[in-house]
Amino acid sequence: MKPIQVGLLGAGTVGSGVFKVLSRNQEEIQRRAGRGIQITMVADLDVERARSIVGDGVQVVSDARAVIANPDIDIVVELIGGYGIAKALVLEAIAAGKHVVTANKALLAVHGSEIFAAASAKGVMVAFEAAVAGGIPIIKALREGLTANRIQWLAGIINGTTNFILSEMRDKGLDFDAALKDAQRLGYAEADPTFDIEGVDAAHKVTLMSAIAFGIPVQFDKAYVEGITQLAAQDIKYAEQLGYRIKLLGISRRVDKGIELRVHPSLVPAKRLIANVEGAMNAVVVHGDAVGTTLYYGKGAGSEPTASAVIADLVDIARLHTADPHHRVPHLAFQPGTLQDAMGELPVLPMSEVVTSYYLRLRVADQAGVLAKVTGLLAEAGVSIDAVLQREAEDVGGEGSTQTDLIILTHNAREGTVNGVLAQMQALPTVLAPIVRIRKEELN
């Protein structure tokens, strides 16, 4: 059978990895796909660099639209990134009848509904395994492997940069700024790390996973997003003393009122496997009613791990290239006509309606009655206390200090309720600094 022909848009870190892995494992891949898969055309602004990667046997151009216009190209692989030109090129490729493989989580999280609708109307596939968790096949697991399950929740460490920073803060006692500099020096963080450290990258990814898990449209604009920039080394240390690790988690959960969709730092019990995922590694936990809890772990970024996911999508498309579009696995696992409307049965809940438990740290005056007043306010609000600890404030003088850290762990409470009681506590004259609030996820 004639090899399927692939046009590659972008020959950077991932694009070069795709070419190398596809070339190295061509025989094995052909045995699995049932036909050859060949990159025959590449578009990159740096033509000479791209040519040095792919050699003389591949046509290299600077204009991505020339790849899309080539009638011999069956699949377009978009590795440009971002929301702008990438969106236009993906939609043009679909309109030209090309299948699309992309690693662009930002594009799909924001414009996925439009792109998937266009692909369905044209009878082509948009595959995006590489968009979430790099080399971990979490999209295939959610979309196919767990299809018998009513998925109840998922939680993931899905940004390697932030996990590396948090590991450094815990292992070395560094503050956030120092750990970020380490991450940049070692190449784990970009010069502008905003999307990573503010949680935006993780939110793009959990938005896609949530849509597949629960059969809802992609709704990035509904996600609650909080990064790690405000985390202090002392909270990581206190969490450790209490038997927890702090991780930036992307979480989506099905509850009676709808779907939770959120990214924020979380205390996770140290005995959970996901709490022990260190460095730049990724992991996703998925809980289904039939299978129970499953864990997916591996490299979430990098040239060849991400290339592994891109090529897996190419193999899927090669297998299904001539299949009736109605017999293919739907883009978001559920048949398009059955997706729950954004305002219908399964709305994404505002953060104020989320129910979880909390770690609270209050810098307070070390005097009688302070603890009673604080716990009294929590009791009046109906927020139940799990544990209370008092620690000497190390950063404001040693023995004889008139300040202390009060650490409170709560049982489950509604976020809106906790917001209200925190405002009351912050107004107390004996509370001397902004209250630290970190959500706690037992993941059991």
Task: Write a brief structural summary.
With 444 residues, the protein is of the alpha/beta class. Helices cover 37% and strands 25% of the residues.
Describe the structure.
Helix content is 37%, strand content 25%. It is an alpha/beta fold and 444 residues long. It folds into three domains: 4-137 and 304-338, NAD(P)-binding Rossmann-like Domain (Rossmann fold), CATH 3.40.50.720; 145-299, Dihydrodipicolinate Reductase, domain 2 (2-Layer Sandwich), CATH 3.30.360.10; 353-440, ACT domain (Alpha-Beta Plaits, 2-Layer Sandwich), CATH 3.30.70.260. Strands 7, 8, 9, 10, 11, 12, 13, 14, 15, 16 and 17 form an eleven-stranded mixed β-sheet that branches. The protein has a six-stranded parallel β-sheet with strand order 3-2-1-4-5-6, sandwiched between helices. Helix 2 (26-33) runs parallel beside helix 13 (303-320), helix 5 runs parallel beside helix 6 (105-122) and helix 8 crosses helix 9. The longest helix is centred in the first third of the chain and has 18 residues, at 105-122.
